[in-house]
Design a protein that fits this description.
Blueprint lengths: L1 H30 L13 E3 L1 E17 L4 E4 L5 E6 L6 E2 L4 E6 L1 H32 L5 H24 L3 E4 L4 E5 L4 E6 L6 E2 L7 E4 L3 E8 L12 E6 L2 E13 L10 E8 L10 E18 L4 E3 L2 E7 L5 E5 L4 E3 L2 E4 L8 E3 L3 H13 L1
Antiparallel strand pairs: 1-22, 2-12, 2-16, 3-11, 4-6, 4-10, 5-9, 6-8, 7-8, 9-11, 12-15, 13-14, 13-16, 14-15, 16-21, 17-18, 18-19, 18-22, 20-21
Amino acid sequence: MLHNSKIFLVLTMLTLTLAGCNEKQETVLEKNPKTNAAPARAVETYAVQMEPVTQSIRLNGQIEYNPNQVVHYASLVNGIVTKTYFSLGDKVAKGQVLAELRSNELTGLSAQNKTLKSQLNVAERKLSVVESMFSDRIGSEKDLLEAQSEVAILKAEIDKVQSSLSFYNASSEKGIFQIKAPIGGYVVENNISAGTQISGNDSDLFTISNLADVWVTTNVYAVDLPFVQKGMKAVIKSKAYPDEAFDGVVSEISQVFDPNERVLKARILMPNKEMKFKPGLTIEAVIKKQLNDKAIGLPANALIFHNNENYLLIQKPDQTLEPRKVTVDVKDNDRIFIKNGIAAGEKVVIGNQLLLFSEAMNASRK
């Protein structure tokens, strides 16, 4: 019995000793918690990579119609506009009647055209007779040449008159002529209305452009000249479409400074497939130039400014978050470039990072 009591006493002491050790280990764990525990919520991150460093410049400008896709209509005759059938900005089809014009000159041209056609019929019949006589060797070559010349002259006169009337359709009863759209597109300029007196020396009556492509004319200041080169891609933005960006290409750069604005004019050609851009609309063009250097690139909104220093919030492989102080080498509008302090492949928090950064900093102080 005594032997069994000793064994029981030893076992009891071992049990108490082990329990005491476990209590000490649990206490240590409580006093030294993980400082950057992985957050329970989902974290949006960006895997950084080495990429060419870019610099951007913002150019202000406005939309203009492409003059290579424009027809300026000017009258060659005098007259009075009696009616118009279009307004500025209207879409018109080729051949559509845009206005009616009363003109004594056009009435005279129409009468002249009929007279010349009658004379041509007589001259052609005469030529037919002369050709027959020349074939039978009873007519001279001189008569044949004169008859051929007369027909050629009358045809040339008719072509000239019809060319002058090519944009008009006559109503012989009232002496009214219709001005038709020479091409399809949009009316981007209008200088006439009912009652307008037209002189052959007047400027364009109206201008039509199809607006399939438009020009973006921007101002380039001397300090920005190194950035802007022909052939560079440009991103077009407008307050009219704040959530959209449109692509264009720098097609021309003026070689002479504007004497009034002291700027060079750069022209950007831009497709206008959805017809969103109209002449006169103000825009901003962003042009990027790649430098001969590489660095870690990431969205600028990932940067956290804290106590006058820049930080990034890094998600480590074990999902914990590490606030890391960094030095920004180049800032380019919506991107930043860092050469040291972060490696390619690391993940940077880019969503809700301010709150997560605050939590991580507070946890590290405990």
